[in-house]
Amino acid sequence: MNAEDQKYLLYGETTFDGLYSMLDEPAIKEDLEKSKIFYDLGSGTGKVSVGASLLLSNLEKILGIELVPTLHETANQVTQKLPQTEPSLASKLEFMNKNFFDVDFSYPFPADVIFKTCLIDNAEHLDLKLEEKMKKELKPGTIIVSYIKSMQDIITFLPLISKRVPSSFGGMTVHYYRKVS
User: Fold this and answer.
1) What's the gap between Cα 32 and its chain centre?
2) SS (HEC) of the chain
3) pLDDT one-digit tens code per residue, 66-117
4) Strand order in the sheet with 37-41
5) What pLDDT, on the 0 to 100 scale, is given for residue 34?
6) 63 close to 37: Cβ distance less than 8 angstroms
7) Does the predicted TM-score (pTM) go above 0.85?
């Protein structure tokens, strides 16, 4: 994103109940149980990343990517406290203060699951840019959990189901996709 595009950033917290509901979806349950690498795009304070590490014990690496430095710092502070209480979780978590457009989702950690928060309305050009990036970098079979926004390319990204889940700013719709080609 450039300075002009940063006006499209949205901040809102997924509740733990909402995350549990998202990850307890029967349409993707089997895929999630086999997943090793989880990307949290727009990871904020790290709630989804930490929650995924607790709910999906099979994950080996959870990568949170956040552009806003203060949110990224908060996620790192949480991670620094985990070795005292949950050493196995801390070693799985990695938070990056980066633009997710600058991170390769295929190397060195090829994504099994992408959790993407939405950009605010009128940012369709950024949604499409992210979709193009995912078309190039995600392997077939990757699950995409798209918070609020649906994806445009339903040939490359097969729609599985959509459902409402709780969030800190009301109920939100989550869309599930599988990359097929």
Assistant:
1) 13
2) CCCCHHHHCCCCCCCHHHHHHHHCCCCCHHHHHHCCEEEEECCCCCHHHHHHHHHCCCCCEEEEEECCHHHHHHHHHHHHHHHHHCHHHHHHEEEEECCHHHCCCCCCCCCCEEEECCCCCCCHHHHHHHHHHHHHHCCCCCEEEEECCCCCCCCCEEEEEEEEECCCCCCEEEEEEEECC
3) 998 999 999 999 888 876 777 777 789 999 999 999 999 999 999 999 999 8
4) 93-97, 61-66, 37-41, 113-116, 143-147, 172-179, 157-165
5) 96
6) yes
7) yes
All domains of the chain, ordered by start, with CATH? 5-98+107-179 (3.40.50.150)
Residue with tokens 């939100």: 172
Amino acid at 38: F
* Tokens representing residue 19 in the block: 């995350």
